Amino acid sequence: MGYLYPGRPVANMCFKVYGYISMTQALTFLQDFKLGHYMKIPPRTMFMAQVSVIRDHYKKYDQTEFINKDYMIR
């Protein structure tokens, strides 16, 4: 990334941050699956639980944005 944008440290920082965040979330995702395996929870159930948590997160984020926009208009 540094070769594409020389002299622009923000591009390098963004690349590193996105790489770090995605790697950390992937490791956490796999740790949850490992714990579910030890507890003998079926993988499909674990996956659906994690997908529902992600979906709920985005739903709450959208609700917060809607409320914030409503207060900003007034």
Q: Quick one: biggest sheet?
A: none
> Which runs of at least 5 residues are low in confidence (pLDDT < 50)?
none
Decide which structural class fits the backbone.
Answer: mainly alpha
Indicate the multimeric state: single chain
Number of contiguous helices: 2
Instruction: Give the total of beta strands.
Output: 0
Into which percent range does the helicity of residues fall? over 70%
What average pLDDT do the residues reach? 85
Q: Beta fraction of the residues?
A: under 5%
Task: Tell the overall outline.
Answer: flat
Distance between the termini: 43 Å
What is the N-to-C succession of helices and strands? HH
* CA-atom Rg in angstroms: 19 Å
Count of distinct structural domains:
1
Note down, in words, how this protein is organized.
By secondary structure, this protein is mostly helical. Helix content is 82%, strand content 0%. The chain has one domain. Helix 1 packs across helix 2. The longest helix has 31 residues, at 43-73. The radius of gyration is 19 Å and the shape is flat. The mean pLDDT is 85.
Question: What attributes does this structure have?
Answer:
single chain, 74 residues, mainly alpha, 2 helices, 82% helix, 0% strand
SSE inventory with pairings:
Blueprint: H1 9-38, H2 43-73
